[in-house]
Write a structure and sequence with these properties.
alpha/beta, 47% helix, eight-stranded parallel sheet, 12 helices, 302 residues, TIM Barrel
């Protein structure tokens, strides 16, 4: 079995970084990468949901990863999500990611058409074949992809020696236990249950709100690793309440996160790409409240 110890820890899901005209900003991509490295995270998950990947072209996704790697290579672990809704583009992104030296690639199943498990397996294996020297991570997010990973499909995928595990964003913690029992490493996906997922055996966490408050998630991880579950619980509660506040905006949660980053002294990385909703004037007050809550929680717990 491969040594997967480098994947233990906290992986913020990287945010899309735009210029004022809505184009990808290489400068802002680099600035966000530097910012998150400075926070002490284990690695980054690039090109996933938080990166608004389904609204980006293949060329844009390559541009983002190239600029992340220009800063991060050799410093932190990089997992590149490469799935598109067709095999050829996914394979192109996988080959590109391997050429840049990422640590792992990841992929959701194809969306819209409900493919049978053997077709999903073929899709994932085709992607893996385009990056034959790179670890492969299955991204299970059935509530958005419309396809749920099963134990039988995971067992089939684990016949591929590059497949090491699952980024599990389904809500049941039991799924983490099942995938681990099959021999896969598992990353907890839902930010609201990081502490529970770690207790259930997740090797680490990949999360869309981690970038807004990495200090809190790093502290949860540290405490759970020490067995101090009770001490981690109030920090998890604080994160959940902040997430609920973010989600109360009219604008998309990632638009709120980007505003919170700016308010708390992080880099300005622009807004979100349509059809994701931009923030309204009323949302700005909610973001300021959430930003203050983050600062207070960091002061209290970290």
């Amino acid at each position: 079995m491969k040594d997967c110890s480098k994947y233990q820890g906290i992986f913020p899901a990287f945010y899309a970084c735009y210029e004022e005209d809505g184009s990808i900003s290489p400068e802002r991509v680099r600035a966000l990468t530097e910012y998150l490295i400075g926070k002490g995270v284990t690695g980054l998950y690039v090109g996933g949901s938080s990166g608004e990947c389904i609204y980006h072209s293949v060329a844009e996704r390559k541009l983002v990863l190239e600029n992340v790697m220009a800063v991060a290579k050799g410093h932190i672990v990089i997992i590149a999500h490469v799935a598109c809704n067709n095999t050829a583009d996914s394979m192109a992104l996988a080959a590109h990611a391997e050429s840049l030296g990422v640590d792992a690639i990841a992929a959701i199943p194809p969306i819209y058409f409900h493919l049978p498990p053997y077709a999903v397996a073929e899709y994932w294996n085709d992607i893996s074949s385009a990056a034959p020297h790179t670890d492969f991570i299955i991204y299970n997010i059935p509530q958005l992809a419309g396809v749920a990973l099963s134990s039988a499909l995971l067992r089939e995928m684990l016949k591929n020696p590059n497949v090491i595990g699952v980024k599990n964003s389904s809500m049941p913690v039991q799924d983490i236990e099942m995938w681990r029992d099959e021999g896969a490493i598992v990353f907890n996906g839902p930010d609201e249950q990081l502490s529970s997922g770690l207790v259930a055996g997740a090797i680490g966490g990949i999360g869309g709100t981690y970038g807004a408050m990495p200090e809190l998630y790093l502290k949860i991880y540290e405490l759970v690793q020490k067995g101090e579950i009770a001490a981690a619980r109030p920090i998890q509660d604080a994160c959940c309440h902040i997430i609920y506040k973010m989600c109360s905006c009219h604008g998309n949660m990632y638009a709120a996160i980007k505003e919170i980053l700016r308010v708390n002294g992080g880099p300005d990385i622009g807004g979100v790409r349509k059809p994701l909703a931009a923030l309204t004037e009323a949302d700005l007050g909610i973001c300021r409240e959430a930003a203050a809550d983050i600062r207070a929680a960091i002061e209290k717990f970290c």
